[in-house]
Design brief:
alpha+beta, Ubiquitin-like (UB roll), five-stranded mixed sheet, two-stranded antiparallel sheet, 7 strands, binds FE2/S2 (inorganic) cluster, 2Fe-2S_ferredoxin-like_sf, FAD, 2Fe2S_fd_BS
């Protein structure tokens, strides 16, 4: 199991299986990451991986439509498109 900390939600920390989708964990555990479509279209789930960026999978093309290169370099992702394979801390 891995630990996901929702920094903007009072540092709420939950456990999840490895290779979990970030938005799905947020929904299941009431992590609080904003969302609308869940499918990589709206951009609402933009968030920042402040801790453990090395534990996230590769940035998808759908994300590049909503995030600038500078944002990606700063750790921004779209939660519905992001899978985590280790401990992370997320803000939004
Ligand atoms: S929830 Fe719409 S892009 Fe992620």
């Amino acid at each position: 199991m891995i630990q996901i900390t929702f920094l903007t939600n009072g540092n709420k920390c939950v456990s999840a299986p490895a290779n979990s989708n970030l938005l799905r964990v947020s929904l299941r555990e009431k992590g609080g990451i904003p969302f609308k479509c869940g499918g990589g279209l709206c951009g609402t789930c933009k968030c920042r991986v402040e801790q453990g960026i090395e534990n996230t999978d590769a940035v998808k093309d759908k994300e590049r439509r909503h995030l600038s290169a500078a944002e990606i370099a700063a750790g921004y992702r779209m939660a519905c498109q992001t899978f985590v394979n280790g401990d992370v801390g997320i803000s939004w």
